[in-house]
Amino acid sequence: MAAEKKLTPMMQQWHEIRAKLSDDTLLLFRLGDFYEIFKQDAERGAKLLGITLTHRHGMPMAGIPYHAADTYMQKLLDRGIKIAICDQTETPKPGKLVKRELTRIITPGTRLADTQIDANRNHFLLALDLGKKALQAAWLDLTTGEFVIASEARPENLFAAFEGIDPREIIVPEGAAQSWADTEGSFGELYTHICDGRAVTPIPDYHFDVASGTQSVMDTLGVLNLEGFGIAKDHAALGAAGALVHYATETLCAKPENLRQLREYSTKRTLLLDPATLRNLEIFKSAASTRQGSLLEAMDGTVTPPGARLLERWLCAPELDLEEIRRRQDCVEEFVAAPGLTTELQQMLRGIRDIERILGRLQNRMRNPRELGGVRDTLNALPGIAVTLLEFPETPVAAIAGRIHNFDTLCEKLAGGLADELPGKIDDGGTIRDGYDEQLDHYRSLTRDSQKWLTEFELDEQARTGIKNLRIKYNGAFGYFIEVTKANLALVPEDYIRKQTMKNAERYTTDVLKEREREILHAEEKAIAREEELFNGLIDAILEYADSLKETAAALAEIDVLMGWAGMAREWDYCKPSLDDSDRLQIDQGRHPVVEQMLRDQRLGLAGTHAFVPNDSNLSSSGDKLPQIALITGPNMAGKSTYIRQVALIVLMAQSGAWVPARSCQLGLVDRIFSRVGASDELARGNSTFMVEMNETANILNNSTERSLVILDEIGRGTSTYDGLSIAWAVIEHLHPKDASGPRTLFATHYHELTQLAKTLERLENYSVAVKEWNDEIVFVRQVVKGAADRSYGIQVARLAGLPTTVIDRAKTILQRLEADDSSHNLLRKRMKKEKSGGDTRDEDDQLALF
Ligand SMILES: Nc1ncnc2c1ncn2[C@@H]1O[C@H](COP(=O)(O)OP(=O)(O)OP(=O)(O)O)[C@@H](O)[C@H]1O
Question: What domain of life does the UniProt record list for this protein's source (predicted)?
Fold first, then answer.
């Protein structure tokens, strides 16, 4: 207690505020031009930020300059640290403790400042709760106001969506986090996976209560019920939504003001992509974890950040609604047919600002004059965009254009009120245009007159005292003063009153200067206060239009994505796919969108690289005239993986509403894409390659339907040949139910033995990727043809890879011996050889019963 008594009033204030925060939060305490960090926070902060730790009266402290705070905050947030900001909430007065309040807590999932967020990506905060029957989830992007709930009896279906939304922070009920991670089976694994590398924040369980959650969601949205959003009052995920609202309110230190809508995500309305497929198909990130080389990058022709964000949302939730898919496709078609207008529109879109996020900040009390300038400039650009869109009358594009509102009144108000050049902060002055407000003009003229007066006063005093270098100066602590250097002290007149002694100068004031100082400061203070009032008035005027601004921003984002797709369609000669409810998939001359682009880029630099070779794909789940399963064999490096992936990517693109890299494409809607391809990054998580492969395969066998698309690449290669072959064999049989339909499947393999399945499975057809042999060398022609391949040409490919000749020669010898060996494994191969040469295979058929 004795120690407590000694605290200065300011430290008492610090203690009171610090006590409201959790231990892991770092408190930044505004002190003049610095944010100070004290005590235990100082030790932690100094280490994390690499700044000097000092001690005052034994108390550790560290400080960061207010003007550079953004950079330091960014560093802390990137390390997953929560920051609490305590600001001065009144103008400091000498001798009085300034009022301070917590103004914000910033966590990885609740950042708002544009310097702290990625413009092209959403920043979602995700809340999870596992009920007895279902997983409840809600996610919210505070920067844009997007707010979604979901409830799913099969949690694995939702984890696919989470992978796509890529949450920055996950809120869970206290106590649950560890027990969920320890849950046996897929839930535990998926939960651990989604938490990996993300901030996880436990909050008390009662914040997940459905009844109180519903109430706080309704209060925040400003509605009396949720029927307008098609959501039942007792929707089980409203508990998670309530937890989000609570957390957002706590961190913003106020109710989030930009939440206006709530949407339900349903796995039944979306083509599902499980996390493994998103990774395997390199949808959002390449295998090297970069955007480059991903489908997202190859499909991104957007020119605005909201467009880029919408593209990502569309790609992680491709549609099952034919009408919506066709609407998007038709818009792309309009833009494809009007390249000139499209380029013009794109040019205009480049000039607009991110209204959705500006609104988010304005509504949540992060206001600076330049944001208003952004709204003004964007509104000025809208009529031009709207007029250009009128060139698409009575088309789906015109329907989107119809969602762009008219803001003439607001435009006029902002043009009249805002200065042309805007400062970064309202306190800097100069936000409001001269002539907009009489009162402000009056204070400003007083200040301007005073500046003139001060200049004249300086000249007069120089003349009166004979001190040529006498200066009138100003600083925040001492106000206005007359500065005289030490050498001229003898000339200082009697009426000068000493204010401060410096090393080389003395500072004085006079009664006249004191009087004038009072007037000037008063006028400046009044001017700033009036300017702030007017500034808030303009913000209120903007916020009155919040809903129509949001709708306009959403329409512009759509136009941006669709024009980007049209640009791609023209540049890469894509076709408009035709989608229906059938069970077929027919792609004529399909290409891999990413590999094709990479090959062209390489070709520019590397002579001799070939262009992408297109291939057809034809499947139907009932096996009606087309196979249900395509089994693809072929040499290493021939292009098997590329081929099967391209089919999956084309389906995903088509159901997102984009055009696709093919000459033509007919597609019966796919409900899920499953993949088991390539190595995975699971090794670091303690799973072996084979284990991962089997987990993914199990998921496919358990969850695929006859509407699904399954692509499997080299199943079973992670174990011994016999085990692998047997598993692959059984997997194919499972995917080919007797007398029923099965998922449309592409299966690439090096087990040539599997090609025999075509004899027993009527809906399976063999294909191979052709190569030409020339002088014991192979030439890749990348053509997929009907019929099985006879060998792997592994040794030839190894030679291409640069294995030493001695190793290649030795491998050939071993291969010859193995092929001569009469093992049961080679029976199949021998049999195939005989078959090819028209020999008798009856003996081996008996042996085949083994499989
Ligand atoms: N249709 C194509 N046109 C042009 N180049 C292609 C085509 N398909 C594949 N390639 C090129 O060939 C390379 C190898 O393809 P891919 O990995 O698909 O072969 P693979 O048969 O699956 O090989 P492995 O069996 O060794 O895994 C790709 O990286 C790509 O550059």
Answer: Bacteria
Q: How many A from CA of 839 to the centre of ligand 1?
A: 33
CB of residue 316 inside a 6 A radius of ligand 1 = no
Q: Whose CA is nearest to atom 26 of ligand 1?
A: 636
Check whether 173 is labelled as a binding-site residue. no
For the Cβ of 617 lying below 6 angstroms from any atom of ligand 1, the answer is: no
Protein fold of 573-789: Rossmann fold (3.40.50)
Average pLDDT over residues 764-770: 92
| CATH topology classification for 125-269 | Nucleotidyltransferase; domain 5 (3.30.420)
Angle at 151 between CA 147 and CA 153, to 5 degrees: 160
Q: Which two tokens stand for residue 779?
A: 């030439």
| pLDDT for res 323 | 96
pTM: 0.82
* Residue 106 CB–ligand 1 contact under 6 Å: no
H or E element, residue 28: strand 25-31
Q: Classify the complex by whether its ipTM is higher than 0.90, answering yes or no.
A: yes
Is position 641 annotated in a ligand binding site? Answer: yes
**pLDDT (tens digit per residue) in 498-532:** 988 998 999 999 999 998 888 888 888 888 899 99
Is the CB of 782 inside a 6 Å radius of any atom of ligand 1? yes
- Is 638 labeled as ligand-binding? yes
Please state the φ and ψ torsions of residue 328, each to the nearest 5 degrees: -65, -45
Count CA atoms closer than 13 A to 712's CA, side-chain side. Answer: 31
Q: What is the pLDDT of residues 101-119, one digit of tens each?
A: 998 899 888 888 777 778 8
Query: Is the fold of 300-407+547-570 the same as that of 573-789?
Result: no
473 in a labelled binding site? no
Q: State the closest ligand 1 atom to the C-alpha of 638, by its place in the atom list counted from 1.
A: 21
Which of 589, 613, 642 is the pocket-test mutation for ligand 1 (most atoms within 8 Å of CB)? 642
Fold assignment, 438-538: MutS, DNA mismatch repair protein; Chain A, domain 3 (1.10.1420)
636 Cβ below 6 A of ligand 1 = yes
Given a contact cutoff of 8 angstroms between Cβ atoms, the answer to whether 635 and 791 are in contact is: yes
| CA–centroid distance for 732 within its chain | 37
Neighbours of 612 (CB within 10 A): 21
Q: Is 623 annotated as a binding residue?
A: no
Say if ligand 1 is within 6 A of residue 783 CB. Answer: no
300-407+547-570 in CATH: which number? 1.10.1420.10
Atom 12, ligand 1: residue with shortest CA distance? 639
For residues 404 and 444, give the distance between their C-alpha atoms in angstroms, rounded to a whole number: 39
How far is Cα 215 from Cα 219, in angstroms, rounded to an integer? 6
590 lines ligand 1 (CB under 6 A): no
With b for 16 or more beta-carbon neighbours within 10 A and e for fewer, the 536-550 pattern comes to eebbebbeebbeebb
Distance CA 675, CA 677 (A): 6
Which residue, among 241, 263, 251, 262, has the nearest Cα to 364 in the 3D structure?
A: 251
Residue 720's pLDDT band (boundaries 50, 70, 90)?
A: low
Q: Domain ranges in the chain?
A: 2-106, 125-269, 300-407+547-570, 438-538, 573-789
Cα 636 to averaged position of ligand 1 atoms, centre (Å): 8
> To which CATH superfamily is domain 2-106 assigned?
DNA repair protein MutS, domain I (3.40.1170.10)
Pocket test for ligand 1, best of 280, 592, 594, 595 (most atoms within 8 A of CB): 595
The strand pairing partners of 25, in sequence order, are: 82
Distance CA 585, CA 744 (A): 8
Most confident segment among 5-14, 277-286, 435-444, 603-612: 435-444
Q: Alpha-carbon torsion 629, 634, 636, 641, what sign?
A: negative
Query: pLDDT of 338-397, one tens digit each?
Result: 999 999 999 999 989 999 999 988 988 788 899 999 999 999 999 999 999 988 888 899
Q: Is 645 in the pocket of ligand 1 (CB under 6 A)?
A: no
More confident residue, 644 or 184: 644
